[in-house]
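Something for you to look into today, if you have time. Just paste the record in under my message, thanks.
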Amino acid sequence: MSVLGFTDIIQGPLAQYAHISQQIGGDVAQHSQLVQQAFKAQLQFLQLASQSSKPANQNDVMIFLKPTSDIIGAIQDFREKHRTSPFFNHLSAISESIPALGWVAVSPAPAPYVKEMNDAGQFYTNRVLKDWKEKDKRHVDWVKSWVQTLSELQAFVKQHHTTGLVWSGKNAPVGVPPPPPSCPLPPPPLDNFAPAAPNASDDRSALFAQLNQGANITSNLKKVTSDMQTHKNPALKQAGVVPSRGSGGNAASAGQPDKPPVFTRDGKKWVIEYQTRNHNLIVENAEMNNVVYLYKCTECTVTIRGKINSVVIDACKKTAIVMDSIVAAVEFINCQSVQMQMFGKVPTISIDKTDGCQVYLSNDSLDVEVVSSKSSEMNILIPAANGDYIEQPIPEQYKTTILPNKALKTVVVESKG
């Protein structure tokens, strides 16, 4: 039944997504072929699990998961290689949410993980809707079909693998599944495109193992579990020291972190450092006087549940943060290509020395004050009555003149580009 249920997803919403992708064409069509291949690889793995008992050695499980993780890596590399594409938001929506297929290595509750990955792509699906809704309805249908694919995947996991992947056979698995047919093989890992790192070739093959590492937080963390989010774990407190905010300097580098990743709570302060491509960073059970500090995180998504005092995002790159409600302020410092989404209130947003900042507001946060300096490519996205967002750029250029009384007068210069 598990295999049949997953086949229904492939033949249903995923097939619709692939069909619309081919209609749109270009990079979207090419990208969708890799996505189909990833789902077919997972189907083969589920067929194996339905006929076999769980291997005693976790490393053996990782060998069987390698085809899927390799294709996920190819999907994300495709996005990075096509950053100038007119469909970059489409590619990003898929790349941010395709790690949902990593549910097979998550326990004891993998279904919420699928939802979190679906939510991780929401920033970019919202931009697709904003950019294309009035131009071409196919792009709206494309978003709906992809979101439905992941929604049905979540329901499938909840029904058939509630507490984790079920191995329902009696015999030990034999052999490594071959790459799925029909679609062309993905390109080799683009090691020359991304800055080199120790054991870089092992990163993708270990993707799913890293999603479920548990207490082994100090080595290439990919998933944070509840036991990692506490100051009672001494190993976490010793893993790193938070640099002073004034020493941020340049934004986070595009390569691997130069120190072990950290996710810890130290009293009233939550510290998240040196995380890379981790979209399952969740701050929960926080109190209203707590603060969250992000430093040098790259390609991550952080979700903060509940009402807290403030958030500082320092020297982060391509990182998104989703928040319920803030008492004081959210601050971006020395960042590149960052995004935030509010579901409740936030009094102040500060943007300093940051290039590329997208701020999604809620109806409850429209009285916010935004203070910006030495920053560029900033946009405020205001919710509209129809559920879409209205994008408003924050001015970057000004004209100053001297008045007869020797005072200065400064006005915004509207960009004509």
Notes: The longest helix spans residues 26-51.
